[in-house]
Batch of 2 targets.
Target 1
Amino acid sequence: MRYFFILGTNPTLSLAELTAVFNHGQFSLIQKNIAILETNEEIKANIIKKIGGTVKFGLIHGEPASIAVKDILKSATSFAKPEKSDSKFNFGISYYGKSKINLKVLGMEFKKLLKESGINSRWVISREPTLSSVVVEQNKLVTDKGVEIVIIEFNKKLLLGKTLAVQPFKELSFRDYGRPARDDYSGMLPPKLAQIMINLAGADLGAAILDPFCGSGTIITEAALMGYKKITGSDISDRALGDTKNNLAWVQSNFKLEALNFKLFHSDAAQISKHIAPNSIDFIITEPYLGPQRGNTPINKIKTELEKLYSESLREFKKILKPGGKIVMIWPVFQGKLSTFIYPNIDGYKIIGSIPANLKKNIFLKITNRDSIIYGRDGQKVWREIVILEK
């Protein structure tokens, strides 16, 4: 089976997450934001709720003989027609390619074929050649009442598929902006990025996970929603711990979770071994303090302070991590005329790349010299560098 994945705004990070989650097949990146997975295992639609970097994904059903409308129609009718004809059926078409395909003719011909089969249909269109996840979801194109036909151009060939699921943008927005405790001043980790970080760790659901800079608890709440059972959080701020407790209670109530098994305690990350047994944690997943988000504090001063904080914390983490344990951690990248990176002391660790070796030379990927991935958007003062360390 072949599956397509439409990647998010940071394709490198999205692909890294996918290769960590689906380690049972072979990935290829065929366009800047499209990955193909060949696997013998079936992928269920609900996995989309646990992968933060994918906009939509689906199953490839065939390769039309040419880009002619008649050949595309022949291939599409094999999988895109509804099983029942007793209700109105919505369909949409997304084309990811550069060759000229007359989508208007294709849509009208498909509608005509449906009508000949006794199916009353509505063609969902957009100003762009591809439908957004919002349009797909709102028009029920991933239910039994609709379909999104996806056409992908690659190596002068077409791949034709059907979308199985789109990113649950409403849920993600609700978890981000609806939660009761937010700290906009210190900066908020987006739930999508928290999911990606958790997935990059490659932890099984029984692993012991720690966030020693838990803040308002985004990593902890996302881990709970993903089904992890042994979650621990700590922070030097009593307010942060209170925010985490409130957000956990809110998530448990709104998403009908069973009783959560988590521990929260007050601690300086640089002294955390006083509270946690040696060699007892499988994974540390965390976004520490990244420096002032506002103001004009000199970057060199912030850099020195953060390198000291991170170096001391990493030295402590080494005491509580199991042998071979991993850390997925964010370090800041300060934006100016040049990007300023930080360099904590990582003695006792090695940096683990998150992109498989066979994909690293792909022209669409952006990986730093130290095998990490940068996450940010234009206009942000501080970008995030996602680093994976192994003890």
Note: The chain has two domains: 2-167, 170-390.
Target 2
Amino acid sequence: MKSISCWVNDIASGKATSTEAMQSVLDRVARYESQVKAFLSQIDPTCLLEQARTLDDLRDKTGQASHGLPIAIKDNISVTGQPLTAGSKMLEHFVSPYDATVVQKLRDHGFLFMGKTNLDEWAFGSSTEHSAYHLTHNPLDFDHVPGGSSGGSGAVMGYRGAFGALGSDTGGSIRLPASYCGIYALKPTYGRVSRFGLIAFGSSLDQIGPMGLSIDDVAYLLHVIEGNDSLDETSRSFDAVETVSSDAAIKIGVPAHMNNFLDGCDGPTREGYENFLNHMSKTQGVELVSVDLSPLMSGLPIYYVIAPCEASSNLSRFDGIRYGERLTDSTLTEVYSKTRALMGQEAKLRVLVGTFCLSAGHKEAFYQKASDLRNKLSGWIHDQFDVCDAIVIPTTPTVAFKLGERMDDPIAMYKSDAYTVAVNLTGVPALSCPHVPQSSKLPIGIQFIGAQGHDYRLCEIAKRFESFFVSPDPDKE
């Protein structure tokens, strides 16, 4: 598939039409969606084609019109007039009355919206198996998970059913699907992209990010959606950071204690990562710097205290009185009880853990201690970029696992996030790039981690190694 920028230029110059672009992805949806089930709700294809033809007609008459490229949106991000369920029965009948800031920016840049993609309920999960509606399958192997929580967005990009997709990343939720489905995804610097219109999971961790089929595509989408927003006080604009020229010397941080760091990785992940290290070492102008990355692994226990605490606070509003579906009964307590019973088991588990960790007598032992350790982790990771330009590690410890394989083992499920959560805790950007090891039919992710605000610099560093990356097409499997 051509890059987004190529399509935009071709449509503007008359070499292609919006209708052709729309039809190209609708053909993919028709071929794969019934088996993959990436979407929770879709715009009627006839309607989408009519929107594209209208743009082409306007372009023929006036010489001006938007490109109309189709994009998919995770169903915890508001799009006017479309369902907004967050994968939960609590919001089954809710229709968004407004656009998220990122959606409005996409509209302004000429994108059309295909529909809303599946996710783990409230974005709680690593496999999209916790959706209250249906399972989403990995487009490269239908027996495997697509990753989570943005599994629907990852899956639709995996079968080339959109030109780009948005997900949200709280502890790795766009990078895991990118790794499992063989695509690219960028978790931006915290605050670079407005969270207005995103249903909050962990307010100090959440970040909307782009998913695509190339580094250029995710950088293009980031440029569209980024920027300060008066509706989100945590958002801010970043000064342009000088990018890296193709021949500039760069230093890449890699684990000093390789065996310990890769403990828990499966064979394909270890093979693919070690092959990439070898590839980098032979790339001109690249120096590999050994860094003690063991503090990164402390992120998992810190995250699974802080994230449930923030989730407990954020989800308290969904009580059937202020927000969410209301199931009636004779007393207020029974209304609360019935209504909140609509939440799935994983949602209940995380809310209860968070509520316990914030309760009297436990807050200091759990939440405060985790917050202190988070601050130390943030200081440590910022110091690493004094000695290297980027850190490169696997995105996930394993390739996509089989559906149902970890549903009865939450610890094994949480360990899927071992290499991703520290990025959210510290607010730095991270880019996941796909590679298919020789020993596996399923891809792994190579994760580039950079300093705060260096999102585009990170993309330029990753492009240095672009020949190594492969985004597998399910048609060719």
Note: The chain has a mean pLDDT of 95.
